[in-house]
Design brief:
31% strand; 190 residues; 7 strands; alpha+beta; single chain
Length: 190
């Protein structure tokens, strides 16, 4: 399979089952989301799920949720559950200031091409940030919570800095924050 056979695209409802299957194969059960959550998110803002589609199906996903400052800080601190984010999600219908919550970067780690998939996903993030800027969306900050060692490594490599921890499911997870400029610069240099 050659990289030209791959495409980064916005997920549609027709891809939800493939997205969930990849999510369930990668993340621990306590971090799984259901179809109804993904449908509610897509109904509110159909542009937040970005998938790497190959002839073999969806091999990667990155999801960025635009939020107002209050819910953004609450989800990072653990005072707002991710399952409640759909009701706080902003759309991209008009220019506005947002904070982006990088809710997931998922790659099919069981596939021999996983490193190439991860690279394609990471390289698509600056393009998404530029697209948002062209829509008149001003991104104040991007935040994420790393739940795996791979997540920690990737977030540090793409311009994020650990700033605190969140406790969930009896574990402590680092909270990462970055400016859009730092993310674009770090990814462009890798």
């Amino acid at each position: 399979m050659n990289e030209p056979d791959w495409s980064m695209e916005k997920a549609t409802p027709a891809r939800i089952d493939e997205m969930l299957a990849l999510n369930y194969a990668i993340y621990p059960e306590e971090w799984h989301v259901g179809r109804s959550f993904v449908e509610a998110v897509m109904a509110k803002n159909p542009q937040v799920y970005n998938i790497l589609r190959t002839p073999a199906g969806v091999k990667g996903i990155f999801s960025i949720f635009p939020l107002p400052a209050g819910p953004y800080e609450q989800v990072l601190s653990g005072d707002l559950e991710e399952g409640e984010l759909a009701s706080h999600l902003l759309d991209y219908d008009r220019p506005r200031r947002v904070r982006l919550y990088l809710i997931s970067i998922i790659v099919d780690i069981h596939d021999p091409l996983r490193k190439a998939y991860a690279r394609a996903i990471v390289q698509a993030i600056p393009a998404e940030l530029r697209r948002l800027a062209e829509l008149g969306i001003e991104v104040e900050e991007i935040g994420a919570i790393a739940i795996t060692e791979d997540g920690n490594r990737i977030l540090r490599r793409i311009g994020f800095t650990a700033k605190g921890e969140q406790e969930s499911f009896g574990e402590c997870y680092p909270i990462y924050r970055a400016s859009p400029e730092d993310v674009v610069q770090a990814i462009t240099l890798t």
